Amino acid sequence: MVLAIVEADGDAPAESSLEAVTLAREVADRTGEPLEAVAFDVAGPGAGASAGGGPDESGDAAGGSIGDALADGLGEYGVDDVHVVSHERLDAYAPEAYAAGVEAVIADRDPDAVVAPGSDRGQEVLSQVAAGRGQSMAANCLAVESVDADADAGGDAVELPDADGSYELTRQRWGGTLIEEALLGGDPKLLTAAEHEVGFEPAADPADPAVHALTPDLEDAHFRVQVDRYEESDEEGVPLGEARVVVSGGRGVGGPDGYDQLEELADLLGGAVGASRAAVNEGWRPHDDQVGQTGAKISPTLYIACGISGAVQHMVGCKGADTILAINTDSEAAIIQKADYAVIADLHEVVPALNEAIRDAK
Amino acid sequence: MNTLACVKRVPDTGAKIVLTDDQRGIDTSTLGFTMSPHEECALEEAVRIAENRDGTATALTLGPEEADEQLRTALAMGADEATLLETGEGEWGPVDTATAIADYVAEAETDFDVLLVGNESADAANYQVGTHLASQLDLPFVAGIKTLDVEDGTAVAKREVGGGEEVYEVDLPAVIAVKEGLNEPRYPSMRSKMRARKQEVASAAPEPAGADCLEMVRLQSPADDGGTAEILGDGPDAAADVLEVLRDDVEVL
User: Considering only Cβ atoms within 10 Å of each terminal Cβ, which end of chain A, N or C, has fewer?
Assistant: First the structure.
């Protein structure tokens, strides 16, 4: 059996969880094992319906109906059974208690592997499971597959160590700048799916999952860390991580005032403003706006990169975008190689003209 | 209040990464090195807490002999003490790394109240050294923190989530994994850099516990999946074509 950890987004599985389910299904298909999922029925501050947390707005979680609601969505992805963890003390997210819930399913079902989403919580909960067992997890995995040591990848072939029951997998390093081929042992194997990278596909053979309620034995030690309260942001506008359109500015913007045009464009498109690390380092924008390896990793429908060169460390933050439009004076800039559309011009001329055109068209 | 900041030596974050011929490492012959970005913020926070709460800040790194460079930077940024856990060449896995740090903490003369780590390192991004460290020391652990207030015996830590922040209150001592943006790390002055050159850096050479079940086989550069963008124009006149793309192709209008 292969087990996927699932977070809910309202009453449906979060996208990053569907990525974990999809990767877990690949593993299950390879080994001929069933695919099962574990979810958490929690209502309270920061209960975390969404992939990134946040209050549960579904309103129906407390009665255990979260399992039925999730089962509909997970069946489409080939999940055979859903284990719903609940506990009277689990009224808000608590990483060690969540890990204990996963451990309870592991003890009951003895999975070959546990796959978690690459979200903050997915990484945290599975790392707690790993720490409790004193074993490593493999974070940000792309695929579990046989590695052909003789494949010509531009370097000398490496003789593989004896796999000895280990999984051969690929995972992201440097935020995706490098790919690592690795061997992962452990019983069970613990891995997370690289967020915005694995993708998710409904199963060829959908399932009709059974829902199983589970109440783990939890002690005070499991609640040393628990969400105490949730504070809503007083920032206006669409949060960067949820925006359908992100208008981002880099060094080419030239200073903090230059972002006024980008703000206007983002407003016209109902989106949010982002920034490159260079612009944040200059103090033109707050770090919260940073898109990139150590900032936000986003997946908007449209990413408009204004005056951004396209360093790999920036691109790992925005490569989840469906479409990238680059506005840059340098036709040789790396971003031009990676964008779908480009305007080779000064953003200070193009963006105002575009704002005017959009206003006229509305 | 005594703090420990665990930092990692990584190639400059803007550097082009070239692999060694055997694909098991990075060609470091032309690279500059720096402190991993999340951990630079961990160090800055450790120094601030020590300054504001009458204690010491200790910087710790596990890495090759050359990681002395990052510890000198840490001393120049205000760390009171620095220790290198020397590994030689090659990578240590997350469990072995956490075990070596936990052993250091258990044997240190200083009792640390706040142990800060980066949320994930810029290179390996294993996301778990802090978790294993806290587990081995039997301490509370919070991750992904971008706001931190330390009081006597308690830390109030906040994590960004969609539309707001989760607030955690944990008893100290605790292990706290922080993200870039927690603070703005200071630039050390030339005077502090000169002083740091002369300060003592303690060192030890732990043996890996051999507990890791994750083994790197080789590294690859990802396939170049980029093409060349469709050029919509070279001046403000391109706005009309952009508008058409936004409306008809991307459908965001």
Answer: C
Q: Name chain B contacts of A337, Cβ cutoff 8 Å.
A: 226-229
CA distance A186 to A195: 23
Write out pLDDT tens, residues B197-247: 999 999 999 999 888 999 999 999 887 666 779 999 999 999 999 999 999
- Please indicate if any CB of chain A lies within 8 Å of the CB of B236: yes
Pair of tokens at residue B9: 């030596």
Check if the interface score ipTM surpasses 0.90: yes
Residue A272: name the closest of A319, A227, A240, A304 by CA. A240
Give the closest of A172, A244, A345 to B236, CB-based: A345
Residues 6 or more apart in contact with residue A187 via CB below 8 angstroms: none
Please give the DSSP secondary-structure letter assigned to residue B182.
Answer: S
What is the CB-side half-sphere exposure of residue A295 using CA atoms within 13 A?
A: 27
* Of A171, A175, A172, A145, nearest in space to A160 by CA: A145
pLDDT at A63: 37
**Cβ neighbours of A51 (radius 10 Å):** 26
Helix/strand number for chain B, H first, E second: 6, 13
Q: Which long-range contacts (CB under 8 A, 24 or more apart) does A355-362 make?
A: A355/A261, A355/A264, A355/A265, A355/A268, A356/B239, A357/B239, A357/B240, A357/B242, A357/B243, A358/A265, A358/A268, A358/A269, A358/B243, A358/B246, A358/B253, A359/A268, A361/B243, A361/B247, A361/B253, A362/A268, A362/B253
Q: What is the pLDDT of residues A108-126, one digit of tens each?
A: 999 999 999 999 999 999 9
Distance from CA of B31 to the nearest CA of A (A): 15
- What is chain A's alpha carbon radius of gyration, rounded to the nearest angstrom? 22
Per-residue pLDDT at A157: 34
Give the SS3 label for residue B229. Answer: coil
Q: How many residues does the structure list for chain B?
A: 253
Closest approach of chain A CAs to the CA of B193, in angstroms?
21
Distance to chain A for B124, nearest Cα, Å? 5
Task: Classify A315 as helix, strand or coil.
Answer: helix
Rounded to the nearest 5 degrees, what angle is found at the Cα of B79, between the Cα atoms of B75 and B83?
75
Return the closest-CA partner of residue A84 out of A213, A201, A185: A213
This prediction's pTM: 0.89
pLDDT in tens, A17-32: 999 999 999 999 888 8
Listing DSSP states for B42-81 in one string gives: HHHHHHHHHHHTT--EEEEEEE-GGGHHHHHHHHHTT-SE
Nearest by CB: B235 against A128, A345, A362:
A345
Taking an 8 Å cut-off on Cβ atoms, the answer to whether A156 and B160 are in contact is no
* DSSP H/E element including A3: strand A2-5
Dihedral of alpha carbons A287, A289, A290, A292, sign: positive
